[in-house]
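Quick note —
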Amino acid sequence: MPQPPTAPAVGAVPRQAGAHPPVPFFTQARLFEELWPQIERRAVEVLDDGKFSHGRQVAELERALAEYTGARHVIGVNSGTDALVLLLRAAGLRPGDEVVVPAFSFAASATSVVLAGGRPVFADIDPEDYGLDPAAAQRVLTERTRFVMPVHLFHRTADLAGIGALAERHGLTVVEDSAEAIGMRVGGRHAGLFGAGGVLSFFPTKTLGAIGDAGAVLTDDDAIAEQVDALRHHGRLGRTIGDFRTINTTTSLPGYNSKMDDLQAAVLLAKLTRLDADIARRAELAAAYDERLADVPGVLRRPPVGGIEGQVFYVYLIETERRDELAAHLAGHGVETEVYYPTTLPQQPCFAELGHRPGEFPQAEAACRRTLALPLYPELTERQLDVVCDLIRAFHREGP
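Predicted structure written out below.
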């Protein structure tokens, strides 16, 4: 059976000799072994069908995700980034329109705005949820602001009530970067469905991950769904299934080649049967981390576990002033970690022309300096988790 890829990790240095095996930041080898009969059957169906993208498996996945999320429409595309670009265009972004984006996020949250023809305007984050701070967003609004993009990171949604109120006061369109938010619900509504629409990413490390790139747009708006459907397929409507003559060859608008591969959809359909169980396991592991790290003085912040509506742990993130030293210490003992994110978006070279300076986004800059993601995935064992926590405790006990 082919081995699935693993995510790149921070601190790839030779491991010191020890009594424990390495702890990868991410793996899904055992999960693939368990699901392989389903994946193999679906993969053979794709090969027999001879339609490798935008076909039957993708259509089935769209229906299954619509049922899971409650979205009126789910449109499969080739990445979470493309999902954002297409959603912004379909929601009416015009050249030069400003979109308020949090200063702390993955680059795609802001580059998607540029690719769709808009201009990102950055605002600071709420240090509790790492999401866009509505008060900070209020301060950067101008007469050109048309959109606001909350990003749901790590284990909870951004302040959707506050951002929704801001949007209503100023006539803004809400587009959610809900790439990490599969399974997160507030008031019974799935993340991505509080405004014009949202997106999902199925990058392999995500809570629901493929074996390559794939994504989806979620929306309850019929017109937006129709636009995204056309944009992903060169501006055409419809899909090719079996009879190639059924395709609509009329190009209604300039579009993209952003169709989802059916082999990715086949993997996702198999893994979707395990999603709720995987989410529950992630919650158990987060609770175990919380208990074991509760009295470690050098760990300045841990995510609250429980008591937060719609909480789903994609990442378990801690904060420490000695983040880089701790990452190196863990790597030296075979434990892989990740930094989300080492640089604020306004300080990325691609946004240098916007002229931002250090100190403008203090909460985002503190998060970039102090946050470290620990291994968290359903296959992580209690023993491996103990190893991680023991090493963190020892590092802070030994001092600088």
